[in-house]
Specification:
The protein is of the alpha/beta class. Helices cover 24% and strands 28% of the residues. It binds glutamine.
Length: 199
Amino acid sequence: MVNLPVIGVLSLQGDFAEHVLMLDTLEVNSMEIRSQESLQNIDGLIIPGGESTSIMKLLELFDLKNSIISRAKNGMPIWGTCAGMIILSQNIIHNEYQNKIHKYEPLKLIDIDVTRNAFGRQIDSFEFDLDVDGLEDPYHSIFIRAPQVSRVGKNVEVLSSITNTQPVILKQDNILVSSFHPELTRDNRIHKLFIQMFS
Ligand code: GLN
């Protein structure tokens, strides 16, 4: 029998509870992560959507940043959704909606640059039927104050994009990112794609 991985969900801020519920639907064991010790007991990590500035501040406060980076460098799969994608990126570009630039450096674990809130304000949130590599039918995706990918490094694979122009799911080795919120739907197929990274 194949052992299912234990997935940690970074639970400092944002919609971590929804990720845990999605993992439950796949009967995957999960663990809420708020400490360095608990990081040692997981096989993979999800960084949820929320507010990237708050999560990055808390990552420093809880002293989790370097431990996550070192587990990632040793091959642990990590998936960031929306704010999680911003946190995993190489560089964060701010736009007119940000009135102050925060000082937190992203984890630089995937070679992409992202522009925060690039689709506009909360009212400009939208839904879209995406074609995704590895999925037979389109995936109905929810974008909430989503970031846009403004640069894709040459070793990064694009698994899905809006109208072939705007990448929204990307992967580089053990790091997966999506600019939308699969945890807010009833469709667990993107979570399944992440779990496949362990086989
Ligand atoms: N706009 C948020 C940020 O910049 C991300 C939004 C989200 O995760 N839904 O952190």
